[in-house]
Amino acid sequence: MLNTILTETVSSGITLPQLILCTLTSLGIGIVLAFLHTYKNTSSKNFVMTLAILPAVVQAVIMLVNGNLGTGVAVMGAFGLVRFRSAPGNAREIGSVFLAMAIGLATGMGYLGIAVLLLLIIGAAILILTEIPFGSQSFSQKELKVTIPENLDYAGIFDDLFEKYTKSAELMKVRTTNMGSLYELCYRIELKKEEEEKAMLDDIRCRNGNLTIVCGRIAENREEL
Question: Which InterPro entries does this entry report, sorted A to Z (predicted)?
Answer without folding.
Answer: DUF4956
